[in-house]
Amino acid sequence: MAEEITLEQWDALAPGSCLLLDVRDETAFSHGALPGAVRLGMEELRAGNFSLPGDRPVVVYCMWGILSAEAAEILADAGCDARSLAGGYAGWLRREMARQQADETRCAEIELGLRKRWKRELFTPFARAICRYDLLKEGDRVAVCISGGKDSMLMAKLFQELRRHNKYPFELVFLVMDPGYNEVNRAVLEANARLLNVPITVFQTDIFDSVYHVEKSPCYLCARMRRGWLYKKAQELGCNKIALGHHYDDVIETTLMSMLCSGEVRTMVPKLRSTNYPGMELIRPLYLVREDAIRRWRDANGLHFLQCACHFTDTCTTCHTDGTTSSMRLAAKKLIAELKKTNPQVESNIFSSMENVNLDTVLGCQRHGVRHDFAELYGE
User: Fold this and answer.
1) What b/e string do you get for 26-63 counting C-beta neighbours within 10 Å, with b at 16 or more?
2) CATH number, domain at 29?
3) Is residue 110 part of a domain?
4) Which of 1, 114, 224, 286 has the lowest CB atom count within 10 Å?
5) For residue range 216-256, what is the model confidence (pLDDT) as tens digits?
């Protein structure tokens, strides 16, 4: 059994004296990692496909300290001086949350940054999407749906900044649905809300437990159930709209996925009328905001948010570490990044393609649920 190292012992190490190794999956790593960490997946470790510098000890961590223990054993067998970080990323994150709460100036600094440093990259495209797609009207009561991730938390702050301009009256409810978070994830979400001065309204469901044993498309079912609960609760609170934190990159990835996986051309639209909740509308105010900008804002402010936190990614033993269960969204993200190497405009071209559909050159289309094929279109 490989030795463990506590957070306090790791703190006592001289900077740069050890290699900090993250063995979580790519998605988890991109949502947040310990400062200075590099990622090496469990699939590579188990296959022996790694080469690490031998002049420094290695500290390995995962989400909870379960997979990292196995990783440290593998590294030790390969001759490395490796130890597993007790408590993992979750333990470190909880401690960071406690430290941030003690700084009463943090929120004011973050809000000032949105007005100055991040205005062009974040607030301006946020406001442009609201105007361009007519997402807000006078008298609206909007349920700003907060999952605990970077996107929805930023959306909440941008809505607060928009209301500060007070061009026309609208109301906000910062709505959090707890679908079954564990204690740590719930604490992180609530700590971030306090830090960012977002007055959240929380309600409880058991969605995670309901979909845990569903073998086919549990994530799809979970998303649909969460959407329904958000509509229902928002309506109960007198809201006529729910706002979700999907951004520009979500839009182009969804567009590409629809062609590659579903055999159809469709995208994630900026607003959508609910068919099950009359009078309710879904809006996506981050529609023109780039994910890289959100990440830079998060990292520049030293903020740490939830990834997904469901039972499928919540524990080290069930997260996607075997290399064969990567989501199609991650695959689409990688494909876009690869194409961008030779065509820097590929992202904007995918986005623009949904605004420039030439019906004279398609084999068929669907409008209001009615299918029109090429022969019919050609004969018009």
Assistant:
1) ebbbebbbbeebeebbbeebeeeeeebeeeeebbbbbb
2) 3.40.250.10
3) yes
4) 1
5) 666 667 777 888 889 999 999 999 999 999 999 999 999 99
